[in-house]
Amino acid sequence: MLPAHPDSRPGGTVRALALACHPLPTLGVTSISAGLAALAGLGFGRGALFTLAVMAGQLSIGWSNDWIDAARDQAVGRPDKPVARGVIPPGRVRAAAIVALVAAAALSMSLGWRAGLAALTLVGAGWLYNLGLKATVASWVPYAIGFGSLPAAATLALPGRPWPAWWAMTAGALLGVAAHAANVLPDLRSDQATGVRGFWHVLGGRATAIGGPVVLFAASLVVLLGPGAPHVWTWIALAVIVGLAGTGVAVGLRSPNSRLLFLATVALAGADLVLFARSGSRLTA
């Protein structure tokens, strides 16, 4: 039984919903979608519509996660989960998740059915993860499929509905798998205590700590070499990427929970996004 002590302060429900939506991942994926819209060449109006569609989908995923996992989060005493702390009733978060899901579907399909289905693939993958795939060795699959479909959602919203280049979808899928590693690493012990045995859980903390930078490095190689013949800047970027990935792996081997590992991973992910931007003119096939 979850405690019931809703926040009665002005704005308490809004504050609780903001915390329950997984704000950092939601903001991160929304920002990436805005960048992809710009790289694909969507105009301001359609780019904003695309970004709002992705944001609504991410809100629905975050809220559904906290609603579905409320009892599990309470069992391990998660202080960062408003539903588990009883600050907001699970039913209210469930309602928010469903409203956001409906909004995501409407906004996505307004881009055209092809782009809409690609955008909703990310949403569906997130919900499937929350509904049970997170506890299986296939937990990486929703991340790979969801993030891999995001470049397609952006380019299919263009006139002529072109598909993205193969390297864009491949890099997106790899970034998704790396994001999965970064997302579960802080919660490995609490997840295992409640029966969650996903892909990275089976491999263990140290493998997860080094796996994220390794997969990000693979994504970097795809973005660097996929668009075509390398240039001088390519080799300079490769040297930077090797240094960041090497730092991440070395720190992960010594101290999987190190703050330095987190910073190296964020820097590596940021470098990948810069590389994506550098290759933006060739985002379509």
UniProtKB/TrEMBL annotation:
Gene3D superfamilies: UbiA prenyltransferase
Membrane-spanning segments: 32-55, 115-133, 140-159, 165-186, 207-226, 232-253, 260-277
Subcellular compartments: Membrane
Keyword presence, Membrane: yes
GO cellular-component term (any): membrane
Membrane-protein topology: Multi-pass membrane protein
UniProt-recorded name of the protein: 4-hydroxybenzoate polyprenyltransferase
Record organism: Nakamurella panacisegetis
Taxonomy of the source species: Bacteria, Bacillati, Actinomycetota, Actinomycetes, Nakamurellales
